[in-house]
Amino acid sequence: MSALSTYESFSVSVENKIAHVQFSRPEALNTMNKNFWLELPKCMEDIEANTDARVVVVSSTGKHFSAGMDLGVFTDSNSVSMKGDPGRMAESLRRVVLQLQDTLTSMENIRLPVLTAIHGGCIGGALDLVCASDSRYCTEDAYFNIKETELGMTADVGTLQRLPKLMPEGVVRELAYTGRNLGAQEAQRLGFVNAVYPDQEALLTGVMEIAAQIAAHSPLAVTGCKEMLNYSRDHSVADSLKYMATWQAGMFRPADMMKTFQAKAQQQAPQYEDLFPVKGLFDK
């Protein structure tokens, strides 16, 4: 394992094969500023390439999970050109939005499951973020809000694309059109969050227990589950079954199953090898 990078927007630690990414700007309500959007994909890549983590937990600090997008991202002249030819301005803005989308998609693209532990407000861009996680958990005081509508714009970084696949579309449309808050109990009833905890301490304890269960399983089996579930979400059943068969033909090996059976026979916890680190073509 290599030393993890340090980030301005969050702290990162790895223990017992669980990576914990914790937003660390409570004084600014953990708004998603330019550094955040640049750092998150690097953080995901860093965890995947340089640690033995098998699961990622994302949580936050302060009163709210995150108040969402820092509007300074769009007023930064280095990010978006707001002067000159309209066509060129539009092309510039499109590229910025695509980069923001890719930032959150990095949570889907890594092999590791990403669990989000949400307390307080999860607003605007923060809702985009948690929609890109594998599973969501929250406190009783948590609420979710598609804030962009109230601000006079259309949410553009993933909520409108992912949320209808996570809960009934009619409710998503209502939330998008009205901008009302979605409370914790309603979010659980609709299947958006897996569980609701009384407070932030209980939330983090509970999510870490779930992460530990995931980390104890074969990482090859778990990454196969994530790959298949993501593919199946976006493709037909027939195509997904064919992809499953191809994946199994190439990736399935009996070694981990044998370790499982032997460990159960000996009443011990199985010990699985980590996946090979993700490296670039020319990385050493």
Automatic annotation (TrEMBL):
Pathway: Lipid metabolism; fatty acid beta-oxidation. Keywords: Acetylation, Fatty acid metabolism, Isomerase, Lipid metabolism, Peroxisome. It is found in: Peroxisome. GO terms for biological process: fatty acid beta-oxidation. The keyword Lipid metabolism applies. Gene3D superfamilies: 2-enoyl-CoA Hydratase, Chain A, domain 1, Lyase 2-enoyl-coa Hydratase, Chain A, domain 2. One of its GO terms (molecular function) is isomerase activity. It comes from the Bacteria. InterPro entries: ClpP/crotonase-like_dom_sf (IPR029045), Ech1-like (IPR045002), Enoyl-CoA_hydra/iso (IPR001753), Enoyl-CoA_hydra_C (IPR014748). One of its GO terms (cellular component) is cytoplasm. The keyword Lipid metabolism applies. Belongs to the enoyl-CoA hydratase/isomerase family. PANTHER family: ENOYL-COA HYDRATASE. This is Crotonase/enoyl-CoA hydratase family protein. It comes from Marinobacter adhaerens.
